Amino acid sequence: MNVVLGASRVLLWPGLFALCLVPVGIGLSAGTPALAFNVTYLALAAVLAGLERLLPYERRWLEMDDQLLPDLLHTVLTKGFVQVVVLMTAVIGAADLIAADGGAWWPRAWPMAVQVVVGLVVVEFGLYWPHRLSHEWPFLWRFHAVHHSVERLWFFNTGRFHLVDTVVSLVFGQVLLVLAGAPGDVVIWTGAVTAFIGILTHCNVDMRTGWLDYVFNTPRLHRWHHSRDPREGNSNYGENLMLFDLLFGTYLRPERRPPADIGIDGPMPAGFLGQLAQPFRRT
User: Which of 47, 128, 134, 222 could form a disulfide with 244 if both were Cys (CB 3.0 to 4.6 A apart)?
Assistant: First the structure.
């Protein structure tokens, strides 16, 4: 039994991630990528909700808090409507226009799988620096602190981001990809991968990721990123890939267990509107 359970924990992250990619590919082929992504994302969320009860990493993170409604509103309004519906639609449209013009260097003749890998590296470069600056520059930290104010990690608060934080990340993450002439399909693929890895990274499931920690952002790495201790929290900035953390010296992977007491030391209102207003208040 222990052997089977151990094997399942090793296979959970790569298995769930790979399974999520299949319907997105089918949806792109059928011309319904948005439907395929939304159904897949909701299915993954449901699976993780069950796994958090069966295989929790931190049992104390199973305790309910008063942040269900704010987390839901951040996810639906900021990540769902603003990022996916409004901004990503504009980004995909711009990418298709630039790609059709043929003026960029993007290797459109390469297999789509290779283009997506290249796209993930390009996007990661654009995501790494705003994320790092959001920890090192007090002005941006005001907005990013909304995300780090959670006191437990679970699938439900994956999308808890301030509107300004979301816009900054998306603009810097996608602008290089668009300017390089990547087609809309590559933008869709990189966006889907970022969403799937994001919810897997935040889930409270006991997964064993091993060597994958040196390639992808995993739950093990991201739990250190949410540490209250800046020496630990100011690390592992990668959204999908750990490439730039390894290159620029911000990679952290101790052998000991990450702290369960997470959050921020500064103030954060309990309500959604208060959290949106908090970065603009004088402290």
Answer: 128
Give dist(CA 184, CA 33) in Å, integer. 11
Question: What is residue 208's DSSP assignment?
Answer: -
pTM across the whole model: 0.92
Q: Rounded CA gap, 211 and 214, in Å?
A: 6
Task: Give the mean pLDDT per block of 10 residues along the chain (283 residues).
Answer: 67 97 94 89 96 96 94 86 58 62 75 96 94 96 96 95 88 81 87 94 96 97 96 96 98 94 92 94 72
Q: Are 203 and 154 in contact (CB under 8 A)?
A: yes
Residue type, position 172, single letter: F
Q: Which domain holds residue 186?
A: 2-280
Domains identified in the chain, total number: 1
What are 52's two structure tokens?
Answer: 């958090």
| Residue 109: DSSP 8-state | T
